[in-house]
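pinned: reference chain
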Amino acid sequence: MFAIQPFGRSLAVAASMALALPGLAFAQASTSLPEADHTVADRSIGKAQSAAMTLAARRYFAFWNTGDESFARLALSPEFIDRTLPPGRPQGLDGPLFASKNFRAAVPDLKLEVQEMMLVGDRVVGRLRFTGHYTGSFQGKAGDGQPVDFIATDIYRVANGRIAENWHLEDNLTLLQQLGAVHP
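pinned: its structure tokens
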């Protein structure tokens, strides 16, 4: 049912060219989208659907990797719903934009590594690792450059080449310990 399928640069570039929306330069699409260290795809997914799902996920990964809102706007459907919405975060596109802005206030050099990506049916599952340094401010406390390193798992439902729904789970305990907000 599942097979390991390498998604090298040639497929990523072809998908970026075929599915790029107006306003996204080809160079940006081909050079700024994070690639998964390992990808597993359901064999029943057609090549066009697989490419569209991969591109939507990689655009969203690029948003979290860079903080560039244009990637989120390209990746997320206008009807986007966060199914694990934390208290205080707005629903829809505004939610991830809000979260990224606030998180980058604490960790301006935040980076995302996509350790694994799985494509199953209309879902993309990402096993993610976030790293950076706490040099900004969190809950009124300034960081002193300590490293931040935590994992997350995201599940996206992709429809019409864009992420329509998202379920996510972050290792917030580890993150809060690293930010000094929670003590072990």
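why pinned: Confidence is low (pLDDT under 50) at residues 1-30. The helical segments are 9-19, 26-32, 47-66, 69-75, 94-106, 172-178.
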